[in-house]
Amino acid sequence: MTKEIISTEKAPGAIGPYSQAVKYGNMIFTSGAIGIDPGTGVFPEGGIQAQAKQCLENLKAVLEASGSSLENVLKTTVFIKDMNDFSKINEIYGQYFTEKHPGRSCVEVARLPKDALIEIEAVAFIG
What we know:
7-stranded mixed β-sheet; 127 residues; alpha+beta; 2 helices; 28% strand
């Protein structure tokens, strides 16, 4: 097996020395996705829920570029700026993960890249 780098223009490009995702065998390991609109390069208006939605759209695009999908996500890690937004994030998150929910960790952090309010990374499989 070899390591394959995954990249798509349907999600924001990496802003450092990393890849949007890495494929190894039938496993996909994504980098953290933030809620920047890939077309405009800015965060959507609407606060945490708008950023959460765009974040998940970006994650979905990277997974699809790898040959996987949100349905094949095994585990996510959600990094948020304010734990008081947990229920608002769950509302959006639940629209994307509707059945057979993946495992998940959610942690509050001091700061995220570009001062994002949320970042999500995932481990998925192709199948």
